[in-house]
Amino acid sequence: MPHGPETLAHAVDRTAPMHPADVDGDDLALLDGFVTMALQAGAAILEIYNGEAVASLVKRDGSPVTAADRVGEAIILAALDRLAPGLPVVAEEAVAAGTVPLTSGDFILVDALDGTREFVARREDFTVNIALVRDRCPVLGVVFAPALGALYAGLPGGGAWRGDIVNGAAAAWMPISAARREGGAAAGLRVVASRSHMSDATRDYIRRFDVAGLVSAGSSLKFCRVATGEADLYPRLGRTMEWDTAAGDAVLRAAGGTVVTLGGLPLTYGKRRQPDDADFANPWFVAHGAFDLAACRVDRATAASERVS
Question: 105, 119, 176, 196: which one has the fewest Cβ atoms less than 10 Å from its Cβ?
Answer without folding.
Answer: 105
